[in-house]
Automatic annotation (TrEMBL), chain A:
Keywords: Cell membrane, Membrane, Transmembrane, Transmembrane helix, Transport
GO-annotated cellular components: plasma membrane
Membrane-related topology note: Multi-pass membrane protein
Organism field: Paenibacillus methanolicus
Gene3D superfamilies in the record: MetI-like
GO process annotations (BP): transmembrane transport
InterPro entries for the chain: MetI-like, MetI-like_sf
Transmembrane regions listed in the UniProt entry: 16-37, 84-103, 115-137, 143-167, 188-210, 267-286
Similarity-based family: Belongs to the binding-protein-dependent transport system permease family.
Name recorded for this polypeptide: Putative aldouronate transport system permease protein
Domain ABC transmembrane type-1: start-end pairs: 80-286
Domain of life: Bacteria
Localisation: Cell membrane
TrEMBL record, chain B:
Record's protein name: Putative aldouronate transport system permease protein
Family that this chain belongs to: Belongs to the binding-protein-dependent transport system permease family.
SUPFAM superfamilies the UniProt entry points to: MetI-like (SSF161098)
Membrane spanning residue stretches: 29-52, 99-120, 241-259, 296-316
Keywords, ordered alphabetically: Membrane, Transmembrane, Transmembrane helix, Transport
UniProt main location, coarse: membrane
Organism per entry: Paenibacillus methanolicus
ABC transmembrane type-1 domain ranges (all copies): 95-312
One GO term of the biological process aspect: transmembrane transport
C-alpha cells in the first residue's frame, strides 16, 4: 500500500534501482540454492547416465539405487548411529551444564558469582591450542572413546552467557515466592526457571545439536582408527578425499567395493544428501531460534 | 564505626569468615550446581594453557612417566623452536598463503554481507525477502565437509555446473581444471566461504538496519531523496558502528582463519597454495610428533592475532572514536 503511493512519484532512477535490487537478490538466491538441487538431482539419477553430464535440477533417469547401495555399506550405518548418538548426548549434557551455570550466575546474591563469571569469560579469549589439548586428551585416556565427542566441549561460556542474559529478564519475585513456599535453590531452578527459559534453551539446544552433527575434525583427530566410533561427516570426508585427490590413506576395501558398483560421484552425492537432510529437517526451527540467539548474543556480548 | 573496626580487626575478620560460611551453607545448592562445571572448565580449558610452555622446550612425550615427572623433566631451550621456525623456508610460503587467504577473506567476507543486507532491506515484497533470507542462511548450517563436496562438484571439469555454464555462454570451450591449479586455490576458498556465510552474516546488519528510525526515511522522502541517496545518507551511517566493530573483530581473527576449508578443499596438486599456519602446526605437531615446534607455530599465530587486534583497535579509536575494548 505504502509502496504504491511511493512508487507513483518515484524518479526513474528508483525504478532502475529496484530492478537492480531484485536482480541481485534473485541471483544470490539462485547461486545458493542451485548447488543443493543439483546434488539432489544427481543423487537420484542413474549412475551410468550421470556420467554423460547435463543433469541440472531434475534427475533424468530416476532411481533410488544410489541410496540403497550406500546404505549397504556398514561404515555409513555405524556413522549414522554415532552421529545421532553424539548429537543427543552432546546436546543434553551441554544444555544441563549451561543452564545450571547460567542459573547460578543469574542469582544476584550468589557469593561466588563474580569469580565463576570471570573464570568462564576468560575461556572465550584464551585457549591452550590444538596440540596441548590433544596431549591432555591423550593423558586422560580419552582417545578412541565416545566420550571425546561430548565431554571436552561440554561447558561453553558463550552458551552460558546467552542463557544467563535471558534468565536475568525473569522477575526475581517469582523465585522469592517459591522460596517462601519452602523450595530449595535446585527446585527453583528445575521447576520455576527452566520452564520459563524455554526459548533460550531451544536456541542453545539447536546450536549444540548442529555443532555436534557437523563435527568431523574430532573424529579425524582422535578416533580415525576406531571404526566403531566413525561419524557420518567423517565417512563423507573419507569418500571425498579418497576420490578427489587420489589420496590412498582413506581407501578402504569395503568402501572400494561399494564404489565399484556405482560411480564414485553418485556415492558422494548420495552421502552428501544423507548428511544434509537432517539439517533441513530442523531448519524451520533453526531459522526461528538461531536468528534470535544470534542477535541476542550480539547485543549482550 | 571506624574506631570499632580499627580496634578489633581480628574479630571483624572472624565474623566475616563465619558470615561467609553461613551463606555458603545457605547457598550449598548453588555451589553444587556450579563448582563441578568450574572444575570441568579448569581441566579442559585451563590445564592445556600449560602447554604453551612446550614452545620453549624440547618436549618429549615420555609415556612411561607420571604426569608431574613429564612436566618437570622437560629440557628448556629458550627461543630455539622459534629460531628454527624462522629459518624454515616452508614457513614463509605458509605465511604467504595464510595472509593471502585471510586478506581475501576479510575483504570479501566483510563487504559482501553489508551490500547484501542493504539490498535485502530494499526489497519491498515481504514474501520474496523472507524467501531469499531463508535460502541464504541455509549453507551456514551444513558442515564444511558438505560444502567442500558441493564446491568440488560444482567446479569439477567433468560436467561441473560452473564449467557447464561458462561453456554454455561461450566464454570458454574447454573445461577449466579449477581444483587442480594452485593459482585458483585462494579464490576458491574465498568464494566457498562467501557462499557459505554471506546470508548468515547479514543477520547482524539487518538487525542494525531495523533499529534505524523510520522517521528519518520519511523525512528524506519528503525532501525528495532518491532511494540510493537514502541508503548513502541514512542506512550506512545508521549501521556505521556495527560495521566498525565487526571490522575490528575480523581483523583480530585475520591470521587465525582456521584450517577446515583448506584441509578439505586442498589436494596434492595445490599444497603450495593451500598450506596455512594451522595445518603446518598440525602436520609438524601431531603427524610428525614434534609437539614443541607445532606449539611454537601456534604461538606465533596467536601473538600476531593479538598484535593485529590491538593495532586495528588503536587505529579505529583514533579515527572514529569507537573501540571494542
Amino acid at each position: 500500500m505504502a509502496t504504491k503511493t511511493m512508487r507513483k512519484g518515484a524518479p526513474i532512477s528508483d525504478r532502475i534501482f529496484d530492478i537492480f535490487v531484485y536482480g541481485f537478490v534473485l541471483l544470490v538466491t539462485i547461486v545458493t540454492l542451485y548447488p543443493f538441487l543439483n546434488v539432489l538431482a544427481l543423487s537420484l539419477n542413474d549412475s551410468t547416465d550421470s556420467v554423460r553430464g547435463g543433469i541440472t535440477i531434475f534427475p533424468r533417469e530416476f532411481t533410488l539405487q544410489n541410496y540403497s547401495i550406500i546404505f549397504g555399506y556398514e561404515g555409513l550405518i555405524q556413522g549414522f548411529k554415532i552421529s545421532i548418538l553424539r548429537t543427543i548426548v552432546g546436546t543434553v549434557l551441554g544444555l544441563i551444564s549451561a543452564s545450571m551455570l547460567a542459573y547460578t550466575l543469574s542469582r544476584p546474591d550468589f557469593q561466588a558469582r563474580r569469580f565463576v563469571s570471570v573464570f568462564l569469560a576468560l575461556t572465550m579469549y584464551i585457549s591452550g591450542g590444538l596440540i596441548p589439548t590433544y596431549l591432555l586428551i591423550k593423558d586422560l585416556n580419552m582417545i578412541g572413546t565416545f566420550a571425546v565427542y561430548v565431554l571436552p566441549g561440554m561447558v561453553s561460556a558463550f552458551n552460558v552467557f546467552i542463557i544467563r542474559s535471558f534468565m536475568d529478564g525473569i522477575p526475581y519475585a517469582l523465585q522469592e515466592s517459591a522460596k517462601l513456599d519452602g523450595a530449595n535453590d535446585f527446585t527453583i531452578y528445575w521447576r520455576v526457571i527452566l520452564p520459563m527459559a524455554k526459548p533460550a534453551l531451544a536456541t542453545i539446544a539447536l546450536f549444540l545439536a548442529v555443532g555436534q552433527w557437523n563435527s568431523w575434525f574430532d573424529t579425524w583427530l582422535y578416533n580415525a582408527r576406531a571404526d566403531h566410533l566413525t561419524t557420518l561427516q567423517f565417512e563423507l570426508m573419507k569418500v571425498l578425499q579418497s576420490t578427489t585427490t587420489g589420496n590412498s590413506d582413506y581407501r578402504n576395501s569395503n568402501m572400494t567395493q561399494v564404489m565399484s558398483s556405482i560411480s564414485p560421484e553418485s556415492v558422494r552425492m548420495a552421502i552428501t544428501i544423507v548428511v544434509t537432510v537432517p539439517i533441513l529437517f530442523v531448519y524451520p526451527f533453526l531459522q526461528r531460534y538461531f536468528v534470535k540467539g544470534m542477535t541476542l548474543g550480539a547485543v549482550k556480548g | 564505626m571506624e574506631a570499632v573496626t580499627q580496634q578489633k580487626p581480628k574479630e571483624r575478620g572472624r565474623r566475616e569468615t563465619s558470615r561467609f560460611w553461613r551463606i555458603f551453607l545457605q547457598q550449598k545448592y548453588l555451589y553444587m550446581m556450579s563448582i563441578p562445571f568450574v572444575i570441568w572448565v579448569f581441566i579442559f580449558s585451563y590445564l592445556p594453557l600449560w602447554g604453551w610452555t612446550m614452545a620453549f622446550q624440547k618436549y618429549r612425550p615420555m609415556p612411561n612417566k607420571s604426569f608431574w615427572e613429564r612436566i618437570v623433566d622437560q629440557k628448556w631451550v629458550g627461543f630455539d623452536q622459534f629460531a628454527r621456525l624462522f629459518a624454515d623456508d616452508q614457513f614463509y610460503l605458509v605465511l604467504r598463503n595464510t595472509l593471502a587467504m585471510s586478506f581475501m577473506g576479510l575483504i570479501a567476507g566483510f563487504t559482501i554481507p553489508i551490500i547484501f543486507a542493504i539490498l535485502l532491506n530494499e526489497v519491498r515484497l515481504m514474501a520474496f525477502k523472507r524467501f531469499a533470507q531463508t535460502i541464504s542462511y541455509l549453507p551456514h548450517f551444513v558442515s564444511w565437509v558438505v560444502v567442500a563436496g558441493i564446491v568440488t562438484k560444482m567446479l569439477s571439469a567433468d560436467h561441473g555446473a560452473v564449467n557447464d555454464f561458462l561453456m554454455w555462454i561461450g566464454i570458454i570451450d574447454q573445461p577449466i581444471q579449477f581444483m587442480a591449479k594452485g593459482s585458483y586455490f585462494w579464490s576458491i576458498v574465498t568464494a566457498a566461504d562467501v557462499w557459505k556465510e554471506t546470508g548468515w552474516n547479514t543477520i547482524i546488519y539487518l538487525a542494525a538496519i531495523a533499529g534505524i528510525s523510520g522517521e528519518l526515511y520519511e523525512a528524506a522522502r519528503v525532501d525528495g531523496a532518491s532511494r540510493l541517496r537514502q541508503i548513502w545518507h541514512i542506512t550506512i551511517p545508521g549501521i556505521r558502528s556495527t560495521i566498525i566493530i565487526l571490522l575490528i573483530m575480523s581483523i583480530g581473527h585475520l591470521v587465525s582463519i582456521g584450517f577446515e576449508k583448506q584441509m578439505l578443499l586442498s589436494n596434492n596438486l595445490v599444497t603450495d597454495y593451500s598450506q596455512v599456519l594451522d595445518l603446518y602446526a598440525l602436520q609438524y605437531g601431531l603427524q610428525m610428533s614434534n609437539f614443541s615446534f607445532g606449539t611454537a607455530i601456534n604461538m606465533f599465530n596467536s601473538v600476531v592475532s593479538i598484535i593485529l587486534l590491538f593495532t586495528a583497535n588503536g587505529i579505529f579509536k583514533r579515527i572514529t572514536k569507537e573501540s571494542i575494548m
